[in-house]
Specification:
By secondary structure, this protein is of the alpha/beta class. It has 23 helices and 12 strands. It has 4 domains: 127 residues, Response regulator (Rossmann fold); 154 residues, Alpha-Beta Plaits (2-Layer Sandwich), CATH 3.30.70; 99 residues; 107 residues, Homeodomain-like (Arc Repressor Mutant, subunit A), CATH 1.10.10.60. Helix content is 58%, strand content 13%. The longest helix is centred in the first third of the chain and has 38 residues. It is flat, with a radius of gyration of 31 Å. One of its GO terms (cellular component) is cytoplasm. One of its GO terms (biological process) is phosphorelay signal transduction system. It is found in: Cytoplasm.
Length: 522
Amino acid sequence: MYTILIVDDEKLELEAFTESVPWASMGIRVIGTAKNGREALELTQRLNPDIVLTDVRMPIMDGLEFAKRAKQFNKHLKIVFLSGHDEFQYIKTALAVEASGYLLKPIDMEELTLLMDKVKVKCEEAKLIAQSEEMAKDKQLRLLLTENSPEHRNHLAAGLHQLDRGAFPLQGPYRAAYLTVSYCGNAGAAGEASEPVSEPIQSSVRDALARSLRALGYNGRCLDWEHGTFTALFQSDQEDEAMWDRLQLLLADDFPIRLTIGLSSTGARLENAYTLFREAQLASDHAFYWGLGSLLVADRLRTPVTEEIEVEDTRAHLCRLIGHQQSEETETEVARFFRELRDRCIHRHLVRTAAVRLVSGVLQHFGTAMKELSIPAMNSEWEIMNNCASMAEIEEHVRHVCHRLIMALSEKDKDRHQHIVRQIRSIIETSYQKPITVEDIAREVYLSPNYIRTIFKEKTGQTILEVITQHRMEQASLLLADKSLKIHEIAGRVGYENVSYFCSIFQKTTGLTPNSYRKQIC
């Protein structure tokens, strides 16, 4: 359906156009009205209609002046003029601003319908042209960001400037941003562990990203890059970092994700985009040190260093602490080890290597306890470390291994694990109505999140999050039988603040949308 804005300074005529014309049967929806050109210009910029039906003679700003200015904002806007005057000069001026039609009052409904059919064809043509133009701009920017040759970059920058002079003048300053989307599920902001985003979430985030950037006044382009990542190039100003901060908050409110943003330094010219893009990518890599969901500014970050890391003293100290079952002291020693690596900005590959050596040495020392716990063999540690996106995740894994060893040494009673599983199930059954996380459950049973994840999976064959979701969907299915409850009320009662996310999970679990399920059972 196409959208139309109606503009007339006569109140009765404005009401008649809005209420008496069967717009819906023409495939058109009225999204606003204005009584003069100035109001119409403000609404056009805010609502971005497909069509404007405007009187010619109006106070403050007439229809012809409005049309000239509106076309500067949106060259594809279709404008139809209304007039009580069958004058050649008005028609001539209307044609000069590329009017899509000209109607004389009083309006003949058949004539209006025929004209709107023609205008809709022009709207469709304009959309195809606009899509083609946007694709050309995206392609040109992508080439500029990846071109190795400085000479070729100059030509590509000039071409992008020709395609979009407003967004891309040859002179800057410019900055680039590299955005990485990580799915954190029900873990929320409290946990560090994350997963790659699924295609449905990627698509939803893509749309929300475009809307949010427009709302924040973003002046640039943002491209889909590799899966789970986006790249942006924009003209820089003093509010850059505040805008990206706000973007992270906006998306975190709507999606179970963390948005990590690497932000480049400034470049003086458009052809600097290639260098700025590389800077932004490298800056985003520092999420390894500072955590997913960080805003990482290139000129405030240190270059990672390659230095020898001594792990033997730490390994020996940890073995002593674990042997004496000193949990707090063990956690303190693990935290100290990784804090020093972070402070020295050790390259992430060397951090992973050091962590593998440390864990492998500790596991070798406690071979018997390791067998009792079915801890992965040492050659699996590389796979585990490589799957950790940040140093915090690696640190958590090392802490988790140490904790499990202490538990094996201090508790031989296997039934204790079953008791923990029963506790977790009880907490889920009494707390599913609120946004409960694995971290919340871990605090209630006085154990680490990773530890309860592991034993719960070992004893039940399901993850804690799977059981939370399963219980919520079972309760939601029961509540759907009550027709007095709205879908958003049911979502809230089973612990989901985001109705769209609840509907997505329900459909994934049952194969039906909540409304379809309700129709089937009621």
